[in-house]
Every structure is written in structure tokens, then in C-alpha cells.
Amino acid sequence: VQLQAYGGGPAQAGGSLRLSCEATGIRSRIYKWGWYRQGPGNTRELISLDDSSGSTQYGNSVKGRFTFSRGDENTNRVYLEMNNLKPEDSGVYYCYASYIGDYWGQGTLVTVSS
After folding, report:
1. Residue 74: pLDDT band by 50, 70, 90 thresholds?
2. How far apart are CA 25 and CA 22, in angstroms?
3. Which DSSP symbol is given to 87?
4. Across the chain, where does the E strand assignment appear?
5. pLDDT tens digits, 19-69
6. Which CA distances in Å does 76 have to 16, 20, 35?
7. Could you give the CA distance from residue 25 to residue 27 in angstroms, rounded to a whole number?
């Protein structure tokens, strides 16, 4: 299983970005997905975590601004809609998937300027 994340880039404070992540090398549907952010302190912060149970867990710093969603049922693709961006949202965003084992994407850099 390989995860490919993309959609990062520069943004202005108050702006929006949409990240995407796709899993390849697997035919079964992945039910548990997450997004994490690694900032200047190198700690990895939870952004969203969804296990298809009906609710998505969000990190406190992004609640109400970021939204996780899934692609069509026939795809293993997820998205992170990021609105009202703040400079502190800058960092490398990693997608995560759990299917028997844990898998991580390569990260996509988001830079928000004030």
C-alpha cells in the first residue's frame, strides 16, 4: 500500500487549500484515515481521524475550519478541506491509513503567510 498526498502549497491567511490523498496497491476499501501535521517543533499533531463510524475526530486547533471527506466508494481517496487558514497551520501534512498495518504518505508542505 502506498499513499500519495498532494495539494499543498502557499496560501494567504484567511484563504483555503484542499489536500488530497490516494492509496494505491490495494483493492479493498480503507476505513480508517487520518491527517497529521508536523510543524517547526517536529511533533506530529493530529488534524483529523476518521474510522467510518459516523464521526470524525479533529484536532482542537482546526475544529470548525478543516473538514475531512472521502472520495467515491470505489476509490481509496480522501480529502482535507482547509478554510480560514492561519500562519500556524503551516507545516508538512501527512495522510495516514490503517489497513492491517499503518501507512503514511510522503507529506505535502503547506505554507500560510500573514
Report:
1. confident
2. 10
3. G
4. 2-6, 9-12, 17-24, 32-38, 44-50, 56-58, 66-70, 77-82, 91-99, 101-104, 108-113
5. 999 999 998 999 999 999 998 888 899 999 999 888 899 999 999 999 999
6. 23, 11, 14
7. 7
